């Protein structure tokens, strides 16, 4: 009897944990990609002039806004790290962060 009850309890626990997790849906926009195409064309040549073979060049440049899926800057990139460094107005702690016990640091934090 005890074995039967423990088997039922394990099965019920297994089923509840299997269906407990639901996948999260994200409403944030995906990574923004800007594409620009540059084309050069060949001008028409007169009939009597010797024709030279000119190449048509096509360049595609991709500039990605280096953001995470939730829209915050991705700190793995160097240019995002340099933008994030801010100068502390008032006194700092040993680790370099602003000491929030001082009035000057509290006012600077409210501006941001």
Textual characterization of the structure:
The chain has three helices and two strands, in the order H-E-E-H-H. The chain has 112 residues and is of the alpha+beta class. A two-stranded antiparallel ribbon has the order 1-2. The chain is flat and about 105 Å long. The mean pLDDT is 74.
Please tell me what the overall shape is: flat
Number of helices: 3
What is the ordering of alpha helices and beta strands? HEEHH
In whole angstroms, the N-to-C terminal distance is: 65 Å
Supply Rg: 31 Å
List low-pLDDT spans: none
Classify the secondary structure makeup into a structural class: alpha+beta
Strand content: 5-15%
Short characterization:
This protein has 112 residues and is an alpha+beta fold.
List keywords for this structure.
112 residues; alpha+beta; two-stranded antiparallel ribbon; 12% strand; flat
Question: Topology, please?
Answer:
Layout: H1 2-18, E1 33-39, E2 58-64, H2 78-84, H3 103-111
Antiparallel strand pairs: 1-2
């Amino acid at each position: 009897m005890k074995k039967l009850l423990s088997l039922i309890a394990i099965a019920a626990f297994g089923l509840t944990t299997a269906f407990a997790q639901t996948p999260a849906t994200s409403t944030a926009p995906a990574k923004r990609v800007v594409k620009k195409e540059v084309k050069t064309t060949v001008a028409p040549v007169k009939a009597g002039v010797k024709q030279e073979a000119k190449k048509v060049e096509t360049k595609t440049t991709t500039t990605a806004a280096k953001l995470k899926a939730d829209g915050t800057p991705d700190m793995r990139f160097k240019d995002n790290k340099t933008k994030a460094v801010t100068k502390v107005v008032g006194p700092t702690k040993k680790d370099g962060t602003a000491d929030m016990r001082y009035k000057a640091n509290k006012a600077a934090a409210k501006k941001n």
